[in-house]
Amino acid sequence: MPSPGVAAVDRALSILAAFEDAPEPMTLAELARRTKMYKSTLLRLMTSLQEFGYLVQLADGRYHLGPTPFRLGAVYQRSNNLHDRVMPLLRQLVADGAESPSFHVRHDARRRLCVFRVDSRHSTLDRVEAGALLPLDRGAAGRVILAFDGEEGEAYDEIREGCIAVSFGERDPDCAGLACPVFGPGGKCVGALSLSGPKPRFTRDTIKAMSSLLLKTAIRLTRTLGGPTDLLDGAVAASVDDARPARRARR
């Protein structure tokens, strides 16, 4: 479906989006392959992006993001104040011995954005970084976001009921994760808190202990954001009485 916006702006933004999952600066030819644009078109658009600091050209001729996206990200963090609310809670989870915590929000119809991440104290970690775009339909955090955005299906009904999703090897065959929702005003799910790490450390007992920690942290963050905690309170109470492991998403 064609975009209702301005074609030149759409193309310029597509160029910036091409850098989202690029581990290294890219040549003009690589950008042309990723964006499916002619090199002549790319060069015209990239001249404007460079002028405003969105792109820079390195000494070897390759292109990379410039300083402007970083400054806009800093403005975003200052304006929504999420950083000061979320990061202390993630650090506390690490201090309590949990796996690496992250906070994810929905990015678009298919992807979620890892907004904040703190590595655990373990020597081996999973590969998730703040700013990473990850699939919505794979991984505990994505499934939580889908569930509380109304996705249909028995698996999503179970997540809505228990407020916890657990995944094993969905994105990385050697890793596992668990996640729960965070609510804002009006009970809207504003994101998902998650814990992730190597699969062998996700045993029945550690899942149960970490689920309790995660739910209690989600309650604190939900209160800070002005959301209702009744669903999360009920999930914490149920976890105390339930000797079974947390419900799992697809293995």
TrEMBL record:
UniProt cross-references to Pfam families, sorted A to Z: HTH_IclR, IclR_C
Top-level taxon of the source organism: Bacteria
Indicate the segments forming the IclR-ED domain, all copies. Answer: 68-227
**Domain spans labelled HTH iclR-type:** 6-67
Q: Which PROSITE patterns match?
A: HTH_ICLR, ICLR_ED
For this UniProt record, the keywords arranged alphabetically read as follows: DNA-binding, Transcription, Transcription regulation
Tell me if Calcium is a UniProt keyword of this record: no
* Cross-referenced SMART domains: HTH_ICLR (SM00346)
Q: What is this protein called?
A: IclR family transcriptional regulator
Q: Which organism is it from?
A: Bradyrhizobium symbiodeficiens
